[in-house]
Design a protein that fits this description.
It is a single chain. This protein is mainly alpha-helical and 325 residues long. It has helices spanning 2-16, 22-45, 56-74, 81-99, 108-124, 131-141, 147-171, 174-186, 204-223, 232-251, 256-275, 281-297, 300-313, 318-321. Helix 2 (22-45) packs across helix 11. It is globular and about 90 Å long.
């Protein structure tokens, strides 16, 4: 409960310091709450979390909102806020569909839906075509991979692209449809792979961009130590999240804003699986430290800078003026 309360207080501080617009900070906080509560409810319905451990949703809410707001504060976005939000929700949807496909080798309906979702997300941001890899990774780790499912997945994406083209051509004009198809051919040359543009000087943006991949790599290592878990499904899910973590780290320099948000969702999933299944004391303490670190990172540097300026403005001469010599 304490991290949840602190997340609200820190958002107020970030708004007062004018680190980002109020509506962006508040919207990210609401989005984090929707994703955290939705994932928690879904995992409980799939019997992947204990019902009595559902309060960990609040810790996940604080973690994801801190990461989303750090992205808004530190990084100049490559896409509009609403596009990033839709892509984030689409990724969560693909994750839920993947989790529900445990040991099912015939999934024509769900594979088709996943392909359609990837087509819609790719229309918003071309790098979102990596959603195909997300679905394949889910299939491979959750023992439901088959070439038939892959063919249906690709067919679903092609059908989605065709439907979007027809909708633009008929709903707007033929030029809009042609521009959409040309973007699939020429849009790749516009993608950049490297460091992002940051909002302001300081160490916070660079520390943030380093600590998220490090956190993901930590969970990759931890996932290989989950052999004592009694559930084969849980071990497979941990390995699936580890593979997704590696994928996000590899494509992160291509779209920092989106991949940081998706990385936050993967960290949230790790947190829910860990706290929701009676983990060890070490992992619980580590998660608490991680949440507080991301929360404090969002305001630490500007607060320290303002504190130093304030202290320098204070006249301390009265402390030594009384000395006669």
């Amino acid at each position: 409960m304490l991290p949840f309360i602190l997340s609200i207080l820190f958002i107020v501080v970030q708004g007062l310091l004018d680190l980002a617009d109020w509506w962006v900070l508040g919207s990210n906080w609401v989005l984090a709450g929707v994703i955290s509560s939705g994932l928690t409810t879904y995992l409980i319905s799939q019997h992947l979390m204990g019902f009595n451990n559902r309060n960990c949703m609040l810790e996940g809410w604080a973690l994801l909102s801190a990461i989303l707001n750090l992205s808004a504060i530190c990084i100049v976005p490559e896409v509009e806020w609403w596009r990033a939000t839709v892509i984030e929700c689409g990724f969560v949807g693909l994750l839920m569909l993947g989790i529900s496909c445990w040991q099912q080798t015939e999934l024509p309906g769900r594979s088709l839906v996943c392909g359609l979702v990837v087509a819609v997300l790719s229309a918003l941001s071309l790098p979102s075509v990596a959603g195909l890899a997300v679905v394949v990774i889910c299939m491979a780790h959750l023992l439901c991979f088959s070439w038939h499912n892959v063919y249906v997945l690709l067919s679903g994406m092609l059908i989605g692209v065709w439907l979007i083209y027809c909708s633009l051509s008929l709903g707007i004009d033929i030029e809009a449809g042609n521009a959409y198809m040309i973007r699939w051919v020429e849009g790749w040359s516009e993608l950049r792979y490297g460091l992002p543009i940051v909002h302001a000087a300081g160490i916070t943006p660079w520390l943030y961009m380093a600590i998220v991949p490090i956190s993901l790599l930590f969970y990759v290592i931890i996932s290989f130590m989950q052999g004592t878990m009694s559930s084969l499904r849980l071990r497979s899910l941990f390995m699936m999240l580890s593979s997704l973590s590696i994928l996000l780290i590899l494509i992160m320099p291509g779209s920092w804003t989106i991949c940081m948000a998706l990385g936050g969702t993967v960290l949230l999933s790790h947190l829910l699986f860990t706290l929701g299944n009676n983990s060890t004391g070490f992992l619980r303490h580590f998660l608490s430290v991680q949440i507080y670190f991301y929360l404090i990172l969002g305001i630490a540097e500007p607060v320290i800078r303002l504190s130093v300026i304030y202290i320098q403005s204070i006249d301390f001469s009265w402390l030594w003026n009384w000395w006669p010599f």
